[in-house]
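We store amino acids, tokens; thus:
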Amino acid sequence: SLLPTSNSFTFSLFISNFFFAKFPFCFSIFVIIMPTASPMNTNLLSLLSILIILVSMVMSESRLQTSRRPILPLPDPRDHTFSDVTRYRITHYAINITVDMDVARATCNTPRIYGHVTLNYTRDQNRSLFLRLDTNKIGIGRVVLWDAERNVEVRRLNRRFEGTDEILGRALTIRMSGTPRVGHLRIWFKSWTNNMAINYDTDNGQTFMYLLSQPIHSRSWFPCQDSNVAKATVALAVRVRNPYSVIGCGEAGEVGSSANDTSEYTFSLHTPVSPYLISFAVAEFSYIDATENIRVWYLSGISDERREEAEIVGSMAAYLLPVASSWMGPYTWGRYDLAVLNLTVQGVEIPNLSYIDQGMHIMLRLLLVSHELVHSWFGNTMTARYSSDLWLNEGITMYLGMEILLNDSFVQSQYHLDRENYYGFSSENISEVDPELSMLSPNLTGRNPKSFLLSYVPFTKGWFFIKNLELEIGGLDEMLRFLRLLLKKYQFSTITTEEFMKEFKREYRGAKVEWERWLYEPESSVGVVREVYEKMVRRRKEDEEGVSKN
């Protein structure tokens, strides 16, 4: 009201006020200019405001461009994490959260998960001043040094965000001066609906939520060392309003009551796991018990068809669990539960629990249950080290999941599976992808690893590569012996493509394997997969001819 008015000046001031919200540094310039303005300078001021707006836009675009590359150097360029696990190692996460399932209040500004996480950390012998954790679009509150024995705060720690990147998120950098080498931190956090891990959906009016954190999305719902190598034990406590209930990874504890008509569900994992395996789901659940140790969850009040589907899934798991254990060794995770839900993917496996998409053809469902079950050994126990090694999780489980079904007499008597039809169909129904992602172990530096995970390459091409190795070394029994050897050596740890190749070459020195072609060359995957299928058909015919001659 103290400034002279004109149409051009009023318009420029209105526009400038809009940009002040976006580009606050402009405000300091106008604070200096405005008091000196006179009626004769209004046009000049208008032009100057437009000039500052244009400069602001250029500078903002420059910031957006540079944010696409991490400002911080990554400790390991192959790993999509800001965390340096050689300096600090998180050994345990105690996650204590509330989940908001009120769809009516759901907005971009409504936190859906909020609470705190207590981290057990160990620092290496060389004193490091900063601990960095991965985050992506989550809010961080206080960070404190925590006395776990007395359950009290010791003192508040300084923290800041660094290294903004559209794929990796931001590093939460915590100043650790004056902290013990082994200790505890507590961090308050909150995450929102527009999140890469949190999935909300409805099915016939029933709202449910589940987490999908693979490959690097754990950081989008709680601060962590989001790297497969950073395995840790977990204690998870989730509060939710009744009548919702929670299922999750690990051994379930007793359900407790909280204030405001809420219940608290607890889960514990005593075996260290990679962060992407920490997950839970919230819904109004019903369940059926397939065995004493296998329970199948489904949405309450949907339809009798969903219950029947849960019963079928339960009977499949009840039969396949002991069969898989006879192939790969004892199942060490305790219970094995499943949840039949309307998912955005076909299936997901976490310790003690598999999510299975509903409404699938029975044959696909059988293969999916077998595949997810095998992840209890290959994926949960022995884990791919980098995102570029994902074929070691998915290719091995595709191979074993299929072979378990094809070689079991009871399954064959019930479903009449044909080996060549399954392999032939899979070899024909694949599509080409980005050549840079067509090899089994691509260079994913600077790329979103989810694009590789969502392609068929680590699954189908990985499966056919393991089958190709089997044909080279003498059959299924020899392949099983090798995979058990790997599992024994790398259990509760991670493995790289190079380590797999080294172990194989040590065991089978005479095997002729085109390693470079399969693992590192951007060749058409359709061709190499089809070659394996044709080799398998020729080998079967040769075996049949040999039997007939004898």
